[in-house]
Amino acid sequence: MSGSELEYGLATVSFTITHPGDLITVSAVSVARFLESRGMLEDALEVATDPNYRFDLAVQLGRLEVAKAIAVEAQSESKWKQLGELAMSTGKLEMAEECLVHAMDLSGLLLLYSALGDAEGISKLASLAKEQGKNNVAFLCLFMLGKLEECLQLLVESNRIPEAALMARSYLPSKVSEIVAIWRNDLNKVNQKAAESLADPEEYPNMFDNWQIALAVESSLSEKRDTFPPAEEYLSHAEKANISLIEAFRGMQMEGEETPLENGDSGHEMLEENGDECEEDAVEEDVDDSTNGAVLVNGNEAEEEWGTNNEGTSTA
Fold it and tell me: What is the mean pLDDT of the segment spanning 153-180?
């Protein structure tokens, strides 16, 4: 057994060697810990040899490239996640995406892609979330992409049929009858009387407020669901957050000196897109900003433009 000393700057660290092969390991760990205790993190990182300890020091120092190199070797999910969060907080978004993918942090990726307005990334994430059984993340991705039919299908496949019916009522009224039929069949296994009490709008249109208007609005907006404005334009759409599409449609009818149509009336007018900005302005003037219950489309609220091309339709 022999003793030895190591001088580092003004500090001297003493240690005892029981086996010559322990010299490098024992001295490096001891010196690195000593330097960290003195606030000399950069020097401690240079001396440290343990990967986990070096990773912690690199994270503290914000040395992301060093931390990434260690994470690549370790292939630790926790290290990738920690590094991804740090990269995101420091604005290194490309590195953040790579780290979050390695960590399989789907919630983190959803936050990143939605903040960037990256529709392609959200689409890939939706597929990945389905494969991993993360239905909540998959649903949010599909909803933001305006893939409402796939949202309904996901809810049905997840046996969340009542939620699918409520979503159809709000966003896809044309699918309500289809979902109600599925709901009846499922509920009939438990309570036949309750299943028979479910109302189908095709059978009882008078029980659904503004039903024909809702169908008209859905039809007019279906072609706009694949349009994804960039995230940088958020402020130009934020002011429309409280607009109700149903109220906007009714306001346009009143502006044309037409009597609002009751449920079950035939010959109601359908709304069609024509890109006329003046008509969009007219809608905004007639809608009360305090309107509650706004209908979401594409994860954004009422960002579409409106036209007034009339077509006659019949009641269900």
Answer: 93
Q: Give the C-alpha separation, 129 to 144, whole Å.
A: 14
pLDDT band at 224 (very low <50, low <70, confident <90, very high): confident
Domain boundaries of the chain, sorted by first residue: 2-110, 146-203, 214-313
183 C-beta neighbours (distance < 10 Å), count? 19
Rg from Cα positions in the chain: 30
**SS3 call for 50:** coil
Q: What is the CATH number of domain 2-110?
A: 1.25.40.470
Q: For residue 23, what are the contacts with CB-CB under 8 A and spacing of at least 6?
A: 4, 17
Nearest Cα to 198, choosing from 165, 170, 231?
165
Strand bridging mode 268-269 / 2-8: unpaired
Confidence category of residue 272, pLDDT binned at 50, 70, 90: very low
In this prediction, residue 10 carries a pLDDT of 35
- Per-residue pLDDT of 193-219, as tens digits, reads 898 889 888 888 888 888 888 888 888
Q: 199-206 long-range contacts, Cβ below 8 Å, gap at least 24?
A: 200/176, 201/173, 201/176, 201/177, 201/316, 202/177, 202/316, 205/263, 205/264, 205/315, 205/316, 206/263, 206/264
The DSSP-derived string for 130-149 is HHHT-HHHHHHHHHHTT-HH
Quick check: 130 and 150 in contact, CB under 8 A?
no
Q: How many angstroms separate the CA atoms of 192 and 72, rounded?
A: 58
pTM (predicted TM-score): 0.64
The CA-to-CA distance between both ends of the chain, in Å, stands at 95
